[in-house]
Design goal:
The chain is mainly α.
Length: 57
Amino acid sequence: MNISRLVASAPRTASLSIELSKLSGPCVGCTDCNGLCRELIDALVVPDAVLSKKHGT
């Protein structure tokens, strides 16, 4: 059996990586910043998720 594995399309991940590359220094102001963290990901992803949520159910 032959199996081919292809890279899946991940537009949200690609968008997040572009935003991360634009940042410099402590991202969300943590005094003990160690780079990529949950708070940073939330700060970048949550606003878009809230604004793109469909209403009217």
